[in-house]
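Possible regression after last week's pipeline update?

I re-ran a chain I had predicted before the update to compare outputs. Posting the input and the new output here so someone can diff against the archived version. Not blocking, just want to make sure nothing changed silently.
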Amino acid sequence: MIQVGDLKPGTTFEYEKDIYSVLDIQHNKTAMRGMIIKCKVKNLRNGVIKEMTFGGGDKVDEARLNKKPFQYLYADGDSLVFMDLETYDQINIPKERLTWELNFLVENQEVEITSYEGELLGIALPVKVKLKVVKTDPGVRGDTSKQALKDAELETGYKVKVPLFINEGETLIIRTDNGEYDSRA
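New output (post-update):
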């Protein structure tokens, strides 16, 4: 059991038969009332982000997640095939569970698959990934008033705003948390 006052961003816990990860936490203590703790949490089973409110003395069950390195192999119809890097076993994950992650997955990429008591929860991508630009318009010199950006399509089909100097065929570093351009590779 974990005291709710000890929760921090990144902590995972089980509450009312669901598994949550803490995104943000606020403590509120006034002279007339007991401690109130507001947590912004993400449900790891369905991806819903919500706020939860607890009293200062409340407790939740700790959830210890298992993370294992896997390699993304290929898409097979409505699922994606991953291989365990230790045992070489393969697992299939439905595409609809990985809609955001599909924007950054390329074949042979290493990811961490997260599970809880044998139940598959999802995959954790690296913070930044290298992706190739397959389509973009050429930048026009003198076309700027501020920091000018243009659209670029990456090898996964994901579209991102990039600076004017980026050309087709270049490899870029893209952040997987917000999907934005970071730098050239």
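Follow-up from reviewer: compared with the archived run. The mean pLDDT is 87. Marking as no regression found.
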